[in-house]
Amino acid sequence: MTADTRDRNVTAMAAVGFALSWAVGLTVFSSSTSVRSTGAAVIDTFAVHQDPAIVQYVFTEGIPAITLAVVVFGLARFANMTDRLRLILTTCGLGAAAVSSVECALGIHLVGWVVPRADDDAAGMLFDAINRLDGVKMILLAAAAGVTVMLARDGALPRWMLLPAIALVVTILISGVGYLFLLSGPAVFAWASLPLLIMWVLSTGFVLRKSHVSPAMADYTA
C-alpha cells in the first residue's frame, strides 16, 4: 500500500467517523434548533440529563471537529485546485473544526459545571455563546463547501457532487445566520443543512478513497 493510498483510506475512514459520530450524538440526547432560551430553562433541560448531554457535545462537536479536519486536509491534498482555493478551503474548513472544538469545551463546561451550580445568568450566556459559535462554524462550512461547488462545476471533482454541495451552501448559510444572530426562523434550516453536511463529508471521503481525481481533472487551473 502506497502512502497516498493509505492517506486516502484515512480520509475516507474519517468521513465515515464524522457521520457515525453525529448519529451517536443525535441518538443519546434530543436535539433542537431553538436558539433562544433563558438560563433557567437551560438548567431545567440539562439538570436531569447531564451525562447524555455531555456525550452529545463530545459526539456532535468534539469528534466531528477532528474528523472534519482530516477530511479537509485530504481534500486539499488530493483534489487539484489553485492555491487560492486551497487556502480558502483549509482556512474555512479547519476554522470550522476549531470552532467546533471550542463549542465542545463550552458545552461540557455548561452541562458539567454551570448547570449543577444553578447559575441562571452564566447558563444563559454560555448557551447563547455556543449557538453564536455554531453560526460562525456553519458560515465557515458554507465557504468550504463553496470551494467544492467550484471544483465540481469545473471538473476537478465529479459532477454529481455539484447539486448537493450547492444545496448545502444555501441551507447551511441560512441556518448559520440564524444561529449567529439567534434568529429562530433561519435557524430551522439546520434540519436540512445537517444531513447535507454529513452527505458532503461522506461523498468527499468516497471520492478521495476511489481516486476519482482523474487525469482530466489534473488540468484544472481556474
From TrEMBL:
Residues in the signal sequence: none
Transmembrane in keyword set: yes
Sorted UniProt keywords: Membrane, Transmembrane, Transmembrane helix
Tagged with keyword Mitochondrion: no
Residue spans crossing the bilayer: 12-34, 54-75, 87-115, 135-153, 160-182, 188-208
Protein name according to UniProt: DUF4386 domain-containing protein
